[in-house]
Structures are given as structure tokens and as C-alpha cells.
Amino acid sequence: MAESLPPLDFSFVRDLRKRAEMTLEEVSKRSGISIGVLSKLERNQNLVELETLYRLGRVFGLSASDVLGLAENCSAHAKQAERYRSGPFDFTKIAFQGIECYQAFAKAGDSLMRPEAHGDDFEICWVQSGRIRISFTREQHELSEGEALKFDAALHHTYEILEDAELFIVHLTKTHRF
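^ thats the sequence. predicted structure below, dont judge the formating
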């Protein structure tokens, strides 16, 4: 017997609309979707066409696949962290689709010359304690506790630990929606 798939749940549309402080009429005008269809969608009483997903997404700055993804996954997702070592750094990592979060610990004098391979990501490094230097081909940045740096992870970069440090590093997959 085939496993039954959970139904799509579009009730989140009401939350998006209210968070944007929009009425059904405003969403209707911006999307070209009738108020009746929107109302039924918010109450989960309607099947949705791809064109409707696209139009609705544009109103809220989302892609059609984002809207469908929210309908498929309205609940939270739990994961267990994994621990590992890369060069002299100790990492704890949590990864979800489109985002990887790392907590890193390193000692003064440590460096990571070729950080793990990156995809098409942005990287954010936020220093929790200590002091570090991140070097690129044409520039360097020294960061201390409470400071952060965002950059394109495709750029060749090196982490140098100037004082024992704890870092949070986040990789955000770039999206090309429109």
C-alpha cells in the first residue's frame, strides 16, 4: 500500500498577508487573483494552479516554488548537530536546505588557508569571542567580539586566529528567483 502524502496547507497565506498588513482586496489588486479565490485559499478550500502560485509569490517577494514549499512544510524541522574537525578548527554544524550554520573554536596562531569547498553561497562570519583576520586577494579584515563580515564565499579567503576565538559562520545559498 502506498504511503499517503500529507495534503498541501495554504493557510499560511493569511499569515503572510496579515504580516504584510494587507487586506484581501490589496492582495487581489496586486496579484490579479480574485478575492474569492484568495479567501478559499486561506481557508484551504481550493486547488491551486501554478499561475496562482507565481502571482501570489510576486506579491510577497517569493517564487512560486517558495510558496509551494511553504504549503508542503508549514511545520518546523528539527536536526541534530554534527561535530567535526577541519584543519585546526573544531566545528559544530547544523544544515538545512539553503543554509548551513557553524560554530567554530580555534586557538591563537591557527589558520585555515582553504576553507571547505563552497557552493554558490554568501558567507557570514560573526565573532563571539577573540580576534581573527579574514584575508582575501586584495583586502583583509580584522574582527573582534561582536563584529561580523559578509562576503561571497566563492572568493578565495583565509581565516587567521589572532586570539583564541569562537565564531559563528553561516553559509546562505544564493537564490536567483526572477
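The beta strands are 82-86, 89-96, 99-106, 111-112, 121-135, 140-144, 148-152, 158-173.
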